[in-house]
Design a protein that fits this description.
With 607 residues, the chain is of the alpha+beta class. It contains 20 helices and 11 strands. It has a domain at 445-597. Helix 3 (36-54) runs parallel beside helix 6.
């Protein structure tokens, strides 16, 4: 199997030349230490760790999987040793406050770290990845005692955290949760219930696991209004911070899964476990969204990683494997056949993988810049960025994971029959990628959140108008009328982008009007609306990359000109070959929902 190679040049291009992390960090209260030299050193060391330590465990971890014996979970060979190196390198606390033992660097650096490590070995990266949301939730909603008890251990990596939401009967509909938290005289609670699909729910990597759990108080209001949030450590914590007695958090089983087999997805039984409420009573779901938004951005990274890893593997294969002759004539006449790289359809698949990976990477990094403002304690900055990040999060999660699955599919296609064989690794990427469209809310849930909550209810289309205004500002800035050579070459990009912004706003208005008469239009349109939005946002990312590359080429004399030329060509491929897909989504979303709802439920059953 092809070993992962960190895309350091592309990462540096985005953070230094396109998104200007340097200026961004200079304006953050916690960005003073994030100088260019420091950032580059972190990126390079993260790349080395990903390539040399965890990438070699990707395939072996899948083959071995996790084991549950006598109530104890064991991770695959090499996972614990790799995690120990991760902790020794200070990676768990990269973006967490120094007062709890972290390095205090901006959150966006953690996103870059998570992308590289997740691409190298998603199943391994899920273990420390789940702790990020637990840390953020405790940091924002925990009291001083809870922060003192748990944060330093989580930030150091000595302990890990999880999120425990789903139950066997309710899935995403958490209003049906039945887990009960009984108040005790000493101010604690006794929790009884079962949670399923708990990523990193039990393992042997750390001595303690801190579960953040949704549960219902006796007599609490029905539905989501009656859910509270609790901290439940696997082992109780002694006064000196050490692990105490077992807290009756039992791993009932490990899920038998299609992919990410090296990640321990557990069924957890809370059998009278001692718990501590975090946040206000009956406001648990609101507090949990701190966790969920972190997790959704993290899941979007899996889509990027699937595309990047599939691209790297299938490109190496296409440059080596020989099959048939190019339709335009022999490209390597002295050989028995031409290499796959000379076949147009193979190039179509490789380029599709690449524009998904590199366009998606910029989408995630842009969101990470917004997220940087959410954890600095600046209420004004939080308010200014909350709506925009909330709008982008379901697009990132829904669109990028769907595109990541497509890229993984192309990886198997490039390999032909060998793509279906385990030793090459392509089928593992496809299996692992598939879960990304499901957990943290399916694509349908993301679409409903985007169109129903963020766009229609959250300001009657204001989110689309605001983001569209940003894109139009970019288009005006690169107006080809000015006569500059690079701006003339930007004409196809900005013309199409401006047209799409108008179309986006118009369609949003149409759906708003239609929803007044028939609310079912939201259910029938939201998936197409999500995908349309994703294609537009990614087009904006590619146009911005093309603008920077064209400026560099316009100056001339750069020994990396080929890199910039390729960036422009990739943007052209995206606009000409991928972006036209939005037309089908645009047409479909405006159709009346009658064709979805006219067949009676009885006629869904076969006799």
């Amino acid at each position: 199997m092809h070993q992962y190679k960190a895309p350091l040049r592309d990462t540096r291009f985005l953070i230094h030349e396109v998104l200007d992390f340097d200026t961004h960090y200079s304006k953050l209260p916690n960005g003073g230490e994030a100088t260019r030299d420091v950032v580059d050193a972190i990126v390079e060391e993260c790349g080395r760790f990903s390539e040399e330590v965890i990438s070699p465990l990707y395939q072996s971890g899948d083959e071995e999987g996790c084991k549950l014996e006598d109530g104890k979970v064991t991770t695959p060979k090499g996972f614990k040793e790799a995690y120990n190196q991760f902790v020794e390198g200070g990676w768990p606390g990269l973006s967490h406050p120094e007062e709890f033992g972290g390095q205090g660097l901006p959150l966006s650096l953690g996103i870059i770290k998570a992308e590289m490590m997740g691409t190298a070995n998603w199943a391994w990266a899920m273990y420390p990845g789940l702790s990020l949301g637990a840390m953020n939730t405790i940091m924002l909603h925990g009291n001083d005692e809870q922060k003192a008890t748990y944060l330093s251990k989580l930030v150091s990596g000595e302990w890990m955290g999880t999120m425990c939401l789903t139950e066997p009967h309710c899935g995403t509909d958490l209003g049906q949760a039945r887990t009960i938290a009984e108040p005790q005289e000493n101010g604690t609670y006794k929790v009884n219930g079962t949670k399923i699909f708990i990523s990193s729910g039990d393992h042997d990597l750390t001595e303690n696991i801190v579960h953040v759990v949704l549960a219902r108080l006796p007599g609490a209001p029905k539905g989501t209004r009656g859910i509270s949030l609790f901290i439940i450590p696997k082992y109780k914590v002694n006064a000196d911070g050490s692990c105490g007695d077992f807290n009756n958090v039992n791993c009932g089983s490990l899920e038998h899964k299609m992919g990410i087999k090296a990640s321990s997805t557990a069924v957890l039984n809370f059998d009278g476990a001692e718990a501590y409420m975090i946040g206000p009573e009956n406001k648990g779901l609101e507090c949990m969204f701190t966790f969920m938004n972190t997790a959704r951005i993290g899941t979007a990274l899996q889509g990027i990683g699937s595309a990047e890893l599939a691209y790297q593997g299938s490109t190496a294969y296409a440059l080596d494997r020989r099959s048939m002759r190019s339709v335009s004539g022999k490209k390597e006449p002295d050989e028995v056949a031409d290499r796959l790289i000379h076949h147009g359809d193979v190039r179509r698949m490789l380029l599709t993988q690449r524009v998904i990976a590199e366009g998606g990477r910029m989408m995630a990094y842009q969101a990470a810049l917004l997220a940087d403002h959410m954890v600095t304690g600046d209420e004004k900055a939080w308010a200014e960025n909350d709506d925009k990040l909330g709008f982008l999060t379901p697009i990132l999660k829904g669109f990028l994971t769907e595109m990541g699955c497509e890229a993984a599919y192309h990886g198997m296609q490039v390999f032909g029959g060998h793509g279906y064989i385990k030793e090459w690794g392509m089928e593992q990427i496809a299996r692992d990628a598939r879960i990304s469209t499901l957990y943290e809310g399916t694509t349908g849930i993301q679409g409903l959140d985007l169109l129903g909550r963020k766009v229609l209810l959250g300001g009657r289309g204001k989110a689309v108008r605001d983001y569209g205004a940003e894109i139009l500002g970019f288009c005006r800035q690169h107006n080809p009328v000015s006569g500059s050579a690079y701006k003339r070459e930007m004409r196809p990009f900005v013309t199409e982008l401006a047209r799409l912004v108008v179309k986006w706003n118009w369609m949003t208005g149409r759906i708003l009007l239609a929803a007044r008469k028939d609310r079912e239009i939201v259910a029938s349109a939201h998936n197409d609306f999500l995908m349309f939005s994703g294609y537009v946002v990614m087009a904006y990312m590619w146009a911005r990359q093309a603008a920077v590359a064209l400026k560099k080429l316009d100056k001339g004399g750069d020994d990396t000109a080929e890199f910039y030329r390729t960036k422009v060509q990739l943007a052209e491929f995206y606009f000409e070959r991928i972006l036209p897909r939005q037309n089908a989504h645009a047409e479909s979303m405006l159709k009346k929902p009658s064709t979805l709802m006219q067949i009676s439920e009885e006629n869904f059953v076969f006799e």
